[in-house]
Design a protein that fits this description.
By secondary structure, this protein is of the alpha/beta class. It has 2 domains: about 120 residues, Rossmann fold, CATH 3.40.50; about 100 residues, predicted glycosyltransferase like domains (Thrombin, subunit H, Beta Barrel). β4, α4 and β5 form a beta-alpha-beta unit. The longest helix is centred in the middle third of the chain and has 18 residues.
């Protein structure tokens, strides 16, 4: 995992996530956002870039299994890794979590340092399948009949972060023309805005912009993008997850 901070959404009893506890996580490069119910989960996911979601299966005010199922079937959020934790060691608890779509089940209590290592390992695995690369380029975006040029924040085979201060709403359809270094032909792809990335003083490295999920490529555009990502990824710092 790179030195980029991890933004973790903790679905648990808020009184259990104390300021001291959050400070301990921050020292280890993890910024904790807390949600006590599904409405708060949805609000945070719609407004912030979240790298990983941790749900306490023993917190009775929420149904960890149902939340996991819902998030994993919601297009905008299904790629975000989900970790379910519990003090229960029964195989049926673990199996139910994994069958619901959780990427990892962790038995608690577990020392914070080891828990964070598990989170980092999971994010490393996800990074290998959705590698993101930093691109020094601009993209032409056609939206509502208007062409707009934006700088690229980062890029993967599944989506792109565009650096812009314009708050385009989630669900907005766009057409992108990508002119990538070393790629002779422009890549044209239709996409959908899935979230806005707002300025965050706690993480000055986080770029303001919009996350766009790719929907349909023209011609062999997807294959050419895959080749570009594979060629570039080895020498690029891994980005945090936006899509």
């Amino acid at each position: 995992m790179s030195s980029q901070p991890i933004r973790m959404l903790s679905v648990d009893d808020r009184t259990m996530t104390t300021d001291l506890d959050r400070a301990g996580y921050r020292k280890m490069g993890v910024y904790v956002r807390a949600a006590a119910n599904y409405e708060e989960v949805e609000k945070l996911l719609s407004s912030e870039a979240i790298d990983i979601i941790v749900i306490n299966n023993d917190y009775k005010r929420v149904d960890a299994i149902q939340i996991t199922k819902h998030l994993k079937t919601t297009e905008a959020w299904k790629a975000i890794p989900i970790v379910v934790t519990s003090v229960q060691t029964a195989a049926k608890v673990r199996n139910a979590s994994l069958e619901a779509g959780a990427d990892l089940f962790v038995e608690q209590p577990l020392p914070r340092q080891y828990f964070i290592e598990k989170l980092k390992q999971l994010l490393e695995q996800k990074t290998r399948t959705t590698e993101r690369v930093d691109v020094q380029s601009e993209v032409t975006m056609e939206i509502d009949g208007t062409s707009v040029s934006c700088k690229v924040g980062d890029l993967s085979v599944s989506g792109i972060l565009l650096v812009t201060s314009t708050p385009y709403p989630a669900g907005k359809k766009v057409t992108l023309h990508l002119d990538l270094p070393g790629v002779k032909k422009s890549i044209e792809v239709t996409g959908e805005v899935v979230r806005a990335i707002a300025q965050d003083k706690s993480n000055p490295n986080l770029q303001t912009g919009i996350g766009i999920r790719f929907v349909k490529f023209q011609a062999d555009g997807e294959k050419r993008l895959e080749r570009y990502i594979a060629r570039t990824a080895d020498s690029s710092a891994r980005m945090i997850y936006y899509l």
